[in-house]
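Quick question about two entries, pasted in order.
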Amino acid sequence: MIRHTTALIMIACMLLSACGTKDESTSELVGSSSGSITPTQEQQNESNANDTVETQTTDSPSSTPTSTDAHSDQESLDDEEISSTEKEDTGESSGSQATENPIEKKYHMNSNYYIKPNDKTSDSKVVLLTFDDGPKEEKMINALIDTLDKHDAKAIFFVNGYRVKSHPELLKIIHERGQVVGNHAWDHEDLKKMSSTAAAKQVTDVQKIVKETIGVEPHFFRPPFGSGNNALKATVKKNGMLYMTWSNGSLDWDKSTKNKPEKVIQNVLDQLNPGSNILMHELPWTVEALEELLSKLEQKGYTFVDPRSIELEAR
């Protein structure tokens, strides 16, 4: 009887225990279903929690910067270094545009447009090379300058304003290759036949466009056809230039010389004197003649005066 009773009691306990576990599981399931958190809310809560941690870390004076903060600091430092470097580079760039050391004025031009030494220490057997009516063509300009460079010679390239306006890049070639730019009026017209105002504009407009194109104004002026007057000379002087025509004409512009480089050479040699101010042009036969002409001048003991060494006042 006792065994039977004990068995009944044990069965009853087991049943009660099973019912309690089922109720507890059911309760958990109900709680999970009724109080579930949507994925969006979980992300928001996680984000808020992370924000709180980052703020605390960033605001804390004793905190160690995170790897992200350290990278940000490095970027800031790099920016400062780059900025400093850029400033230094800018300084170097502007320095590269610094003006060249001034060349000593060893020569002057006389009233007949010959180039004369200022004293006995300077060579009197010199010639001044000049080319009018450009800039025309890149090929001819570079060919002329190639020959000048070969003979370590400088020349004045007297340019017309309307040509510079059409081809500013050609003017830059002359300047960047170390040759000297001169003013030959805006149009190739007789300035002597113009009013003083119109002629003055022909001069000043070239000064302006040359300055805008290469950064410097011409220091030498030659009127088209060599034709001018006192009013024009006054305008030229006012603009800081030396007024000149020439003392040795190559006649390369004349039809008798066209396509005859040997004639160009002979014409120059026939008129040759110490200080000759030689007039030539940017023409194919002059380009062809130049190498032999310069060689013959050197054989006769002549050197080529640097225009920058000539005073800007005739005497």
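Here is the second entry:
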Amino acid sequence: MNERRNVIFLLAFAVGAVLTDGLFLGGASEAGEEQLHLESSEVAAEFSAVAGGVGVWDHALPIITAGDKKAVANTQRVSRQSANMFQIFLLCVFMYSGIALMWGVFWLMPKQNAAKAHGKVFLLCMTWASMSVGMQVLNKTLVSKLQAPALISVGQMWIAVVLVGIPSYKELLDAPRSQLLIWLIVPLFFAAMLCTSCYTYQYMSLSFYTVIRNMTPLVVLPAERALMPADTGPKLSPMVIVSMVVMLGGTLMYGGGIGHVSVIGIIFAVTNMILAVSDRLIQRRLLTTDCSGLASSVCTVMNNALGSIPALLLAGATHQIADMVSPENRASWTDPRILTLLALSGAIGIGICYLGFECQRAITATSFFVLQNFSKVVVVVCGVTFFGDPITPPAVAGLALSIGGSFSYGRAQMSLQQEAAVIRKLDQRQQSFEPQARKAAV
């Protein structure tokens, strides 16, 4: 019953959000008119820059405006590609309304139906994949429209606090105070991870960000081997090393294929990977030792509530709060369509965590790796379709190598873990057999 309630809540919020978004789409409100004027000016500026010999990928974007804004604007060269709001609306409508309809049909099926068990697994996988894709597309859209990565992160955190904190406030009040104090270090890493992720979307295309994320094992493997016990940490094998080399080669080939890469974007992406790995390792360590008594909902509320404080300070330090009320940005921040997408992204972030656990319970690890790689392919397609990500034959080959190397790495690690599990079972049997053999000999 709890599972049905959670899925209904997430899907109802998603469908309601996209339908609400649709009511405002194409409206004649003052904010909408001003935003349309601004977007037309941006398009005109892009054509003017192209005519002057400057590509769209080389436009200046002052997202960190401390100091001389003009100097910063002249030195920061990034993509200003922006998706059409109507296209994003249609994507959300088709994805989430269709999945909600399939869940409705599933719940109406009789319990004795033999296909119901397989249908549930399929729906869990499709729902998780749609939310994984939707989260990245929405984040890229929001960053392109609002030009305020830190404020977007703050908004998503507050939405998560409301959606998770209200139903679980009793668990938060009953949580051990000593464990809550120890957990205070986690929100700092969590906030830094979210903010650097949004900044990466500002400077990097959706497809290239997917390729960079595939290189996470190059950061995770040495960190986990250094920090985790030898019997639980990741293993090394020739296939693991080959897979990582393939991923690295695919990334370099993709970067060479698109012809121009943002150095700032790569710095943010690599920083985000390091922070994400650190956040995961710290949380795993605390949840299995000093903070084992904290519920997942309590950890979620603390991460988002306390993590929003440094993110809000960052937004103030980089003038994003002041720029939000400026005439040229006020239209975006008061546009109901954009605010709806922001609320939807916050709910989808929660859904990804919940459905990720449910999928891993319902399918094998291999199947989940396949699902993750399938969602990456869809994200790349969305990047090319909605944001005009550059695509060339070398870039396609680089994408194929990157995703293929990621899948091979996952398969190799799982094979090593299965072999280690078999060896542990044999050792346990041998240890239990030796005392019996000595007793029989005596």
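Reply: The CA atoms of residues 126 and 172 lie 32 Å apart. The beta strands are 59-60, 77-78. Hope that helps.
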